[in-house]
């Protein structure tokens, strides 16, 4: 006579336990989830205070108004992940915008102007990379020199504002693609921004170039010893940043309908703040493009909240500074915890 013994039932693992285990193994995601939590909290508080904050019009406008910043944040993420910095993105955006607007005014076809703007941005990024890699100039100094150069070139194009009347460029911003559900909409500039974020995330996650960027940020010396193409990868990281700045020049020109030499002043700091708030370590080696996207949403939500209050926009800077300080402290704690392990 045989007896069968029932197998003990396995208790279902709580979702909280799975999430805690994930974070313990992937501590680099902690700042990203922290940024997401702060974003959700701000949206809830804003809706409770104003009552009309979480509407399709307002949320769609977050992407519309910050499309250029999403693009800049993608390029900045690549550079910061290598342990570098790029202070030239705002000036490069202004220079490419001024040159593009000038060419459009002179009758140059849009199909030629846009690639020229992207190419000039990439070339400026390459120049910064060459200074950093071959002349051993600190990224801060190299990109600062490029910032002054690009800003000066913008003033050389014109000292005054140039209005853009090209239909193709204006179409990027003026077209509202309605979803047909609840009044949500998106513009071509928003689509470009989201595609840039998607492309950056895929490149970092699934290509050798992306994995090498993380390796360089973790330890450049170790990356060299492993035979990884450190020089080429760092150069390409700055090229990506410059290319994104050129693309942001196209998007920002469409957004404003004009170009001005002083456009983008301080934008490089907003971009760095958004990337850091999104969880990318300033020392490099840890961070995600998705986190940078969340950081831009946090930045945009703070600006919109301040506008709803009718307060001075200087409070936006104060709030971003406080959040930046908070996330730098969080990053230091994560690094210290990882070192102990």
Automatic annotation (TrEMBL):
The entry's keywords: Cell membrane, Membrane, Transmembrane, Transmembrane helix
Primary residence: membrane
A Pfam family matched in the record: BPD_transp_2
Positions of transmembrane segments: 29-50, 62-81, 111-134, 140-162, 183-206, 235-260, 272-302, 314-335
InterPro entries per record: ABC_transp_permease
Location in or out of the cell: Cell membrane
Membrane topology: Multi-pass membrane protein
Lineage: superkingdom: Bacteria
Stated name of the protein: Sugar ABC transporter permease YjfF
